[in-house]
Amino acid sequence: MITSIAATVVVFSVLIIVHEMGHFLVAKRMGVRVLRFSIGYPPRICGVRRGETDYAIGATPLGGYVRMLGDEISDEPSAATLESYAHELELDLIVAARRSGWLPRGNHSDDDALKLIVAEITPDGEISADRALTVLGHAPSVEEALVIRENAACGAAKLARERIGAKRPSALIEQFNARAFPTQPLWRRFAIVLAGPFANILFAPVLMAVVLMLGAPIALPVIGDIQKDMPAYAAGLRSGDRVLAVNGAKVNSWDELSVMVKASGGNPVHFVIRRPGAAGPVTLDLTIRPKLVPESTIYGTKQPMWIIGVLPRGDERIVRAGPLRAFEQAVVQTCNITGSLCFGIYNIVRGATPVRQALGGPIMIAQMAGREAHQGFTNLAMFAVMLSLELGIINLFPVPLLDGGHLLFFTIEGLRGKPLNLRHREIAMQVGLVLLAILMTFVILNDLSRLIG
Predict the structure, then answer these.
(1) Contacts of range 389-392, beta carbons closer than 8 Å, 24 or more positions apart
(2) 217-319 classified as CATH 3.40.30.10
(3) How confident is the model over 178-200, as pLDDT tens digits?
(4) Angle 79-100/170-179 helices, nearest 10 degrees?
(5) Are 384 and 11 spatial neighbours (Cβ–Cβ below 8 Å)?
(6) Which own/partner contact pairs does 136-144 have at CB distance under 8 Å and 24+ positions apart?
(7) Per residue in 49-98, pLDDT tens?
(8) Is the dihedral of CA 14, 17, 20, 24 positive or negative?
């Protein structure tokens, strides 16, 4: 149980950091101010402020968010939003004063630290450029100067923020709009939102390439269990036999053997095997005609496949690839996995796969993570690859509150030439919240029914 929980927290934390880092890096690149980068949801447990951003850890795990300036649903910054922005600028002044070395790191509250800074910079009620350079290490920006003057005039940070919100200075609003998310050009907002799912999708082949370079276990083509009523047993194949070649092609792994048999189309397949014996191993030639049998897929459906009725014994060897080969294989494999995931989602949508059988929630994910963790780093990393792709794909669904919902809004805005009505956006978000709540309730109850059943 502890292993399952720990593995789930580690895997999800990594994938959340990757996802939110995608939003974060592109937002910063586009000039948008990022107020908070949080792993976990509020309440905030701890964190540290670096530059303009508060890097925090929240009490509610298995989630995270990047909060950008002005990313609330609003057409114009409200007085409360401007007050909040003024507070962020106050924190900027404190960070700058500490970075310059003028303000020692101590037990000063934010308000006390701000009073010291303002008093030093405005000895006569006006900003001294020389003192500001000494205290902050740079000349105050337009918006910082406005905050300094209001604090000098009011003598209290809270009152200064309230006056700024009430007066709505045009210079502050101009700077706010330049750094806020909602006021960015459409293509920038689209890129920032798309960056999260894209980061997860890109992370999958990178992680897989690392696994392939470190060494991944490959199942060898050694026969284990054999079904006695199937073609392999009838043709003379036995447990312990090592398959050397199929139809003249060398076989190095169980996956290669499986692909060759399934691709036979029912035609006779020529096997070259090595069988251990008391006097030493012997090489044998066998011809086996595969049988078409409905097999269960990972999506809960039945699909006819050509098989011979054997399972691997479990022999493995570690295979390591060079960087270029590893990346090439990783890209190919993640593309195949992505295709399988999309096909599985399609089957769920069209009703071919039972929803109760296909969907799992946090309990099932924890069970799977724990099982893979017990198998070693490689298995857990490959599980993370699968989850990263799923997280990236699912976040592209056009559902409000998901990244895909925002992208849908932006697409509509691009077609209409103007954003959706504020009230319509609010209703869509409320509907999305209800849908996600229903989905989460369903998957959790589904997990519990699996445990009880």
Answers:
(1) 389/200, 389/201, 389/204, 389/334, 389/337, 389/338, 389/341, 390/341, 391/15, 391/19, 391/197, 391/200, 392/19, 392/197, 392/198, 392/199, 392/200, 392/201, 392/204
(2) no
(3) 999 999 999 999 999 999 999 99
(4) 80
(5) yes
(6) 136/93, 136/96, 136/97, 136/100, 136/102, 137/96, 137/99, 137/100, 138/96, 141/175, 142/171, 142/175, 143/89, 143/171, 143/172, 143/175, 143/176, 144/89, 144/92, 144/93
(7) 998 999 999 988 778 999 999 866 656 788 999 999 999 999 999 999 99
(8) negative
**Whose structure tokens read 């101590």?**
106
The tally of CA atoms less than 13 A away on the side-chain side of residue 2 is 0
Q: In sequence order, what are the beta bridge partners of 66? A: 37
Nearest Cα residue to 375 out of 7, 5, 115, 22: 7
Domain(s) labelled CATH 2.30.42.10 in the chain stretch across: 217-319
Is pLDDT of 11 > 70? yes
CB atoms within 10 A of CB 136: 25
Answer whether the bond into residue 400 is a cis peptide, omega within 30°: no
Give CA–CA dist 447/267, Å, rounded: 43
Q: What one-character DSSP code corresponds to residue 222?
A: B
Amino acid at 223: I
**Closest CA relative to residue 20, chosen from 52, 60, 58, 67:** 67
* Nearest-angstrom CA–CA distance, 367 and 373: 10
Q: Tell me the pLDDT tens digit for each residue of 355-383.
A: 676 677 777 777 777 788 777 888 889 88
Q: In whole angstroms, give the CA distance from residue 222 to residue 253.
A: 9
